[in-house]
Design goal:
The complex is a heterodimer. Chain A is an alpha/beta fold. Chain A contains 8 helices and 16 strands. Chain A is globular and about 55 Å long. The mean pLDDT of chain A is 96. Chain B has 5 helices and 15 strands. Classes of the chains: A alpha/beta, B alpha/beta. Chains A and B meet through strand 5 and strand 6 of A and loops of B.
């Protein structure tokens, strides 16, 4: 009888070892609480939290979400309770799990980012920080730092200096050259980069002749953007040496494997959690089976294997 | 909060048109998969079979039969997803995320003079509410239900079923049946008395109902609707403005899918 090979599913990024490469994309999974009804959080490589700011953020007016073919647009505007409540409630909740925790950090100004980063410095439950310089739905800050290489380099350097945990810069696809942005993050001292955040889109109700979203524009996510993510991960992989967390429309283990083959060390499941709340676990199981079928010693062998 | 959230595959056991563009769909859970409790006012997310339509459609629960494990949904066709559901064949499967939301608090309603105000496709969740309040009232030997149901035209639906649980007043926008006007207009015109109001319908109507409840200084529970994505409280897509700081984000935006969809009228700024 043919015995399948047992693959080492763990991956390492900046000295942090993850049980497997499957994470959650920020903003699609809360802090895990809402999805703990569906999946065993301990089966995930990491929970990547919803963006956390220094004070509570109200977010945008509604409607904030709408479906588009093969995906959705959102303009939530990073509604969150701020870092104090986050530490007291969300981090305490996550203490019962052994899954790694990556906290997504957002701000309007460099000072606001640094404020959050400093307040998380002594939190043992926080394994890494993901710096959100790519949210398209916040007028001031956020994406402004992620669309200019010099601004990205600057904020990366400042956050890196203040951070106790390794930092991941989350990049936006709304740029001319993802390779250039990846290089700027690397030069600024980022330990890793994650991509892609949502792609700015717009939907108009032709009967009402009005924008569907109150914010007019929204970030597009879902399976329709997956090929763009694969291309951008590939380009970034060939531009920098730091590890990449790949995301963008993952709806199956095949999509996850594809991002890894393009150059990702780990992957994150996002909007499709809304379609299938069990998806993260299914992707982890599917990847393990795939790696075993292909006789891999380590899942990391997939990273950038297609040149 | 329901701790029984799950995505299940249900079987269509009935699908019929009730009025132009309004359908009744009955779905059965497999044995062993049915929720143990369904509160009136709760909802489910129904998935399209077309993989290009990724988000579940939030649809309120119009009826729940624990013995038969059957969920009844009454909805209006508003887009491609609901159009697909309206064409379901008997025996077909549909994926459903549920049971979602808080639902009405029966304890605050049974034994009292309850006024149910349903505007158009807002009426269906109030039918299951009427059924459950009626059952409680029968046991207690007190309480009454009056349902005021608003429609665009005389193409009515569900009104006969409401009549099994209490008095029914019909209103139509065009005056072709019942009171010519809207539900709040009918309540005022006919001086309908109540201890408590439960309402579901379009936002302008809910604003009118809220004003009425504040004016009469009686408790009022509104079932709100908003575009949703996850349905489980993670994405923060479907919020409503609240009077007090909300429990989740500590701003003044509560999640309709999780803290709602039923809110006391004074809690929300609509």
């Amino acid at each position: 009888m043919e015995s399948k090979k047992k693959t080492d599913m763990s991956v390492a990024i900046a000295g942090v070892t993850f049980r497997n490469p499957v994470m959650t994309a920020s903003g699609t999974f809360g802090s895990g609480m809402e999805y703990a009804d569906f999946v065993d959080l301990n089966r995930l490589g990491a929970v990547v939290t919803k963006g956390v700011s220094n004070v509570p953020w109200e977010g945008n007016p509604t409607p904030r979400v709408t479906e588009v073919p093969g995906g959705m647009l959102n303009a939530i505007g990073l509604q969150n309770p701020g870092v104090d409540v986050f530490i007291e409630r969300d981090l305490r909740f996550l203490e019962q799990f052994s899954t790694k925790v990556i906290v997504n950090v957002c701000g309007h100004t460099v000072e606001e980012y640094l404020d959050v980063v400093e307040r998380l410095a002594d939190e043992k439950r926080v394994d890494m920080l993901e710096i959100n310089v790519s949210c398209p739905n916040v007028k001031q800050g956020a994406i402004a730092f992620g669309t200019r290489a010099d601004a990205l380099f600057d904020i990366t350097q400042k956050v890196k200096k203040a951070a106790r945990q390794p930092i991941i810069m989350k990049l936006t696809p709304n740029v001319t050259s993802i390779a250039e942005m990846a290089k700027a993050a690397e030069a600024g001292g980022a330990d890793a980069i994650s991509l892609i955040n949502t792609i700015t889109g717009m939907k108009i109700d032709v009967e009402k002749q009005k924008f569907v979203l109150a914010n007019k524009t929204g970030g597009m996510s879902g399976p329709a953007i997956h090929p763009i993510a694969v291309r951008m991960v590939y380009e970034a992989y060939h531009a920098v040496k730091i590890p990449i967390i790949g995301m963008g429309g993952i709806s199956s283990w095949q999509d996850a494997a594809e991002l890894m083959l393009a150059g990702a060390t780990a992957v994150a499941v996002g909007a499709m959690n809304f379609h299938d709340p069990y998806l993260t676990e299914k992707v982890a199981d599917g990847l393990e089976d795939y790696a075993s079928r292909h006789g891999l010693d380590s899942i990391s062998q997939l990273t950038g294997a297609v040149q | 909060m329901s701790s029984e959230k799950a995505k299940r595959t249900l079987t269509v056991t009935a699908c019929e048109a009730l009025a132009a563009g309004v359908y009744s769909l009955t779905l059965q859970y497999r044995e062993g998969e049915a929720p143990k409790e369904v509160r009136p006012g709760q909802f489910v997310g129904v998935y399209s079979k077309d993989s290009a339509r990724i988000l579940p459609r939030p649809i309120s629960i119009c009826g729940w039969d624990q013995k038969k494990r059957e969920l009844r949904l009454v909805f209006r066709v508003v887009g491609q997803g609901t159009e697909e559901f309206s064409k379901c064949q008997l025996g077909e499967s549909l994926d459903v995320l549920g049971i979602l939301g808080n639902g009405y608090d029966l304890a605050a309603l049974s034994g009292r003079k309850v006024l149910l105000l349903g505007g158009g496709i807002g009426a269906p969740p109030l039918l299951e509410l009427a059924r459950q309040i009626h059952a409680e009232n029968e046991k207690a030997g007190s309480g009454s239900i009056t349902a005021v149901l608003g429609y665009r035209t005389d193409d009515l639906f569900l009104e006969k079923e409401f009549a099994s649980y209490g008095d029914v007043v019909i209103t139509t926008d065009d005056g072709t049946a019942g009171f010519h006007g809207n539900v709040v207009g009918a309540v005022r015109d006919k001086s309908i008395e109540a201890d408590v109001i439960c309402a579901c319908g379009p936002m302008p109507m809910l604003r009118g109902v809220r004003a009425l409840a504040l004016e009469r200084d009686i408790p009022c529970y509104l079932s709100l609707e908003e575009r949703m994505a996850c349905g489980v409280g993670a994405c923060l897509g479907c919020v409503t403005k609240t009077a007090q700081v909300d429990g989740h984000s500590h701003v003044k935006n509560a999640r309709i899918c999780t803290e709602g969809p039923v809110f006391e009228a004074r809690e929300v700024l609509i």
